[in-house]
Amino acid sequence: MVTPSRIALARKRRGMTLAQLSDRSGISLQSLSNYETGRTAPRSTTLNKLASALDFPAAFFQGPPLEELPADGISWRARSKTSPRVLDAARAAGTLGATLYAWIAESFHLPVVDVPSLGRPDPETAAAMVRTRWELGEAPAPNMVHLLEAHGVRVFSLDPDHAEVDAFAVWRDGVPFVFLNTLKSAERGRFDAAHELGHLVMHGNEHACSGPEAERQANAFASAFLMPRASVLGHMPSGAHVDQIIRGKRIWKVSAMALTYRLHDLGLLTDWQYRSTCAELSRLGYRSAEPEGMGERETSQVLTKVFAALRTKGVRPSAVAAGLGLTSEEMNRLLFGLTLTTVAGGGQQTAPTLTRHLSAVSSPPSAAARPSSNSARAFARP
Asked: How far, in Å, CA of 293 to CA of 256, rounded?
């Protein structure tokens, strides 16, 4: 039995129109429309053509209906001219990521969701409230991926083919998801993670999650969350020079441009100093890259631990992908840069070095054992 919505999802995932799929598969446009709406169902030979054209296993189309991530609830961090087709492809990938996490949640105890909805405070206050709730004080934020995971956010990679999308976040059924572009510098990846956290906190339910004002608020939240006012005032002088900014950015693991913006926002740089500093940083290459930066991106603790636990039981990532009706390549794109990924031939490709390692446990967590601070734990269900 073929599920119509899965045909539409797979087509969107590949960024194809019905006409393009028709050309590639040799199936008429009218027939494809009928399959997606459920008016008729493809025969097995036609299904194989669809599967080949869309590069999905035929089994994928015979699974239960998949609920797409809500389009209205997504906060996109993307270029303004990004085409709707690219955004649809990223949303379809996000739906597959949510499906993978649902599978993981059936086998592992994941960190409980602890992301507040704070629609009323200004971004600076909201960031301070989350820091207090998460017991961060005024210290520099630790690994942002670990931090989000420890508080119940499900973090995935964006498809490397969609580089024009930096990140997006969405709530679904009370679970927050964040998707990150893992091709950016480590510092910009941290800012993207904090930016999406801002959307989840401030725009989850009551306020619009897209548009220039929502983006401004999320940027302000990320800036305040990563560089707390008291910490910056305590470390940086008024009128800081470029060399002081380049040294100072290492304290908070942010880009030089982000710290410059924060210094101006806090009144430590005048308008003229801000413009001249940005010009100098651009000349040095800091607008498009991060010379002498962190280097290695922050990776996932939860996904690494889950797949390590599966390997100890002889379950290969390719088997997980097959169980979900996905190819290994499709699943790897959701994990790229965040944890170990499989490659053709059955080997493994190592993601950037992990900054922490936690061992799996084989029993459900007691209330006291559940993570309460900044360590993300995944517990194997018995």
From this structure: 9
Taking the CA atoms of residue 219, residue 142, residue 150 and residue 265 in that order, the dihedral angle to the nearest 10 degrees is -20
Q: Which residue carries 């010379």 as its tokens?
A: 291
**Chain segment 334-348, per-residue pLDDT in tens:** 887 787 655 444 444
Determine what percent of the chain is predicted with pLDDT higher than 90.
Answer: 65
First to last CA, the chain: 33
Contact between 318 and 344 under an 8 Å Cβ cutoff? The reply is: no
How many Cβ atoms sit within 10 Å of the Cβ of residue 89?
22
Q: What is the pLDDT of residues 260-308, one digit of tens each?
A: 999 999 999 999 999 999 999 999 999 888 887 887 889 899 999 999 9
CA distance 214 to 108: 35
User: What's the rounded Cα separation, in Å, for the pair 164 and 362?
Assistant: 41
In Å, how far from its chain's centre is CA 354?
17
Q: How many CA atoms lie within 13 Å of 342's alpha carbon, on the beta-carbon side?
A: 18
Check if the beta carbon of residue 299 is closer than 8 Å to that of residue 352. Answer: yes
CA 258 to chain centre: 20
Rounded CA gap, 138 and 30, in Å? 60
pTM of the predicted protein model: 0.85
Residue of 163, 194, 192 lying closest to 180 (CA atoms): 192
